[in-house]
Each structure stands twice: as structure tokens, then as C-alpha cells.
What we know:
- Chain A is an alpha/beta fold.
- Chain A has helices spanning about 1-20, 35-40, 40-55, 65-70, 85-90, 125-135, 150-160, 175-185, 195-200, 235-245, 250-255, and strands at about 30-35, 55-60, 80, 95-110, 140, 170, 190-195, 210, 220-225, 260, 265, 265-270.
- In chain A, a hairpin with a 2-residue loop joins strand 10 (about 260) and strand 11.
- Chain B is an all-alpha fold.
- Chain B is built from eleven helices and no strands.
- Chain B has helices at about 1-15, 20-55, 60-70, 75-85, 100-125, 130-135, 140-150, 155-170, 170-180, 190-195, 200-230.
Amino acid sequence: MPRRLLHLAALLGLGLAACGDGQHAVDVRLVSTTSTVDSGLLDQILPAFEEDSGFRVQVIARGTGAALALGRAGEADVLLVHARDLEDTFVAEGHGAFRRDVMTNDFVLVGPREDPAGVREVRSVAEALTRIHSAEGSGFASRGDGSGTHLREQRLWKDAGLDATADPDYLELGVGMGGLIQAASEKQAYTLVDRGTWLRFRDRVDLELVFEGGPALLNPYGVILVSPERHALRNEKAARALVDWLVSPAGHRAIQGYRKHGMPLFRPTGGER
Amino acid sequence: MEFLLDGIREAWHLLLSGDGEVWHAAWITLLCSLTATSLAALLAVPYGAWLAVYRPRGHRLQAFLLRVGMFVPTIFIGVLVYGFVARRGPLGDLDLLFTRQAIIAGEFLLAFPILGTFAHGALTGSDRRPFETARTLGASHTRTLGLLILEVRTVLVGAWLMACARCFSELGISVTVGGNVRWETRTLSSTATLRIRQGDFAGGLALGMILLVLAVVVALAAHRLAREARR
Lengths: 273, 231
């Protein structure tokens, strides 16, 4: 019996050891948004950075609101999010050392093919939302989770002077962007989605693009270096390297190179503050 | 029906073609769950046995708490562990959030009550004679406990199998404290959730199928055990 115990202990030791390997080699914890991660961009471009720099990046996906909360809690080294107001606040509060523009894409409105609310005819997103809001039997699916997409959606309703929740067909689901598009497809509802995620899911859902364009739908992404003075970064050099790379020509090339249906999902910007 | 059948066909294809992430998820699941349940067994079984045989003060309450522990939802365990290992938590300096160790810690808490309750149940109120005989013959307390545990090992292996099954399929712990980090903390359940959310139904199904196979393996082992016990 003692021998068996020894065997078990050895196995356990191996198990625990196997669990530790490779994990402490993480140099940068990048917390990004679910839409960015779901779009597949980071899986595509980060290996290039890792090869160039020799640093390993760990990616955690959260909604923008939750990502910033993780930053405040000292759990993140670098943030890649899309809610300019919140990003600026984050830096102003001292949690972020600085923010830089990285890339943009835009939001689009998608909805059922038959377009019961007649959104295809409108000239502005405010008009589109008004029609969806008042039309019977035309639902709207919302992220409802404090994500960048959700925050923009809320701002659009506000700018249109509407109380979204007054519409009985307004649904709030906490399932991430990919999940939301599918839910909207299942329920044949309208929804706001970033173009990157839309391009990725377009062929798999029963929805069509019904409205695009205009300054209200622009979606700029920012990268924030969590302040090394406020929080203990895993590896400050590595974190700075990642931020610098994302706004460098190499980073731009990588971002530009991520395409679906021939179109880049994100347009690189930045290079200066 | 087409949707489902197509999904199954695609899933099967994914499994055979060796989708790296799918099989890696299986590996992570087995690694974390087996380590956690074995650690839990090492500690919970002697504890449960000791409670049953020596009946110390408060043994009834402890036995009850063990039983309650079996029914605690995994999301609660996940949130609890998160509270401990997050930077601001008491163990924050250990940097354990979003690691496999954190998942193991949580699954340990999941498995411990199961193994403890069964060890206790197997030895409580049972025949005192083996105990008395061993002690009379001069066996130490440790040795005695060990012998009694050995006697009921069939039940304990069954409990271990059940704890494994619980850990294989849990989601509340791995997602909350594991963070679903690619190549590191994605288990079968958490990857399946991710795949479905990303619209990859076949991928989700493939992972689910592996979980099903694991369930069958565990059930077969438990079945064999039960048969042998009856002989």
C-alpha cells in the first residue's frame, strides 16, 4: 500500500508540474473585447508580434466595461477596447499610462431580409432606430453587457431620443457579439454589430446589412498601457513593446492583412497619440 | 434535422482531422480534473474515514457540511476561488488567476465533499470489529484507518469516478477562474461554450462528443466496479 501511495503521489506531482509549465512564461496579459477576440484578429496578428519580440502574450476576452474593470483591479497589462469616453476616463484616473489609436472599423445595422421596419430607406441611424422602435413585430437584440458595442448602442438610442426598453421587442442577451448575431438571426431581430464580426458571421446567419455609414457608426479602437506606477505589470518592457508594435508599421501591416471576403476587418490608424 | 446531422458529420471530421485545439482541450480537462480529484481523494478520504471511525466532537456537523458541499453550484465555487486569487484578494500575490492551478483549486473544492461524504458513509455505523481487532493487534491509528479505508476501497473508487465526472463537465469554475485562455486554460466545456458563441456549432458538438465518451468511460469503470463488489 505505501508503494501505491508513492505512485499516486508521483503522478500527482507530475500532474501539478505539468500544469505549471509554460504558464509563467506569459509576458503580457492583453485584455481585449469579446468582439475583437471573436473576430479572430488577435489570433492572426499576435503570433507575428510574439515572433518579432520574443514575448508571449496571453489574451483575455471581456466586454469593454469589464476589460476596464480588470484594468482597474490590476489584472491587466495592456487593454485593447473601443469606448473612447471610458478609455479617456481610465487614463485620467491614473489607471492607464496613456492611450493610442490603433484601428477603426464601423458598426452596421443588420436585420431580417424582409426588413419589416423599412430600415433600408432611411438616411440616418436615428431614423432607423426610430422605425425599429415603433414598428410592431420588429425586434432589436442588444448586448446588454457594458461592452463597447453595447455602449455605442445605448448612445445611439439616447441621441435618437428613444427609450429602448420601452419597446416590448427589445431583447438584452449576455452572450457576446458572436452569440448575439446568432440570437438575432434566430429571432429575426435587428442588431448593431461591428463590421469585423459581421463579415465573419455573414454567411452563417439569416440576416442582411440594412444600414451603414455615417459618423455615428464609426468605431475607433484604442490601446491602453496600464500604468506601471499604479499597478504591477507582469513585464513592463514587454507591455510597452506590444503597445508600440500595434501602432507601428509592422502592426499596421498585420492588422490590414486580416481580411474576410477580400475586405480588411479593421483599418489601422494611429502612430501618434 | 439536417442542421443537426450536418453538425455531427462535421464534428466527426474535426475529431479525426485532429483539430489541435479540440484535442488540447481534452488534455487540459483530463489534466486538471484528474489532478484535482486525486488530490481531493488523498485528503478527503482519510478525513471522512476519521470522522466516521473516531467520531470526534462535532463529527455530525462536519459530516453534514461535507454533504452540503456536494451540492454547491460550481459557479459559486468559481466566484469564491476568484475572490481569493484575484490581485486584490488574499492570495493575489501568487498570480494564480487565469491559470490551470486555479482551476485545479476550484475542482478540488468540488471533489473534496464528494469523496469525504462517501468515505464517511462507507465507514460510519459499520462493524466495529475490524477496528477493534486492528487496534488490539497493536496497529497504530494511521495503520488502522488505512486498513479500514482499504476495506471499502471499491466504494471510494466509485466516488472518485463520480468526482471525475463532475469535474470533466463543470463550467462555472473553469470559465470564472481559468479565463478560457487559448492553449492554456480551455477545457472541453469552456471551449465548447466559446465555439457555440462564435457560431461554430460543429466544433461545439465535437467537444461535446468527447465529453460524452469520457462520461461513458467513467460509467463503464463504475459499472465494472459495482459488478466486482457484488461478487
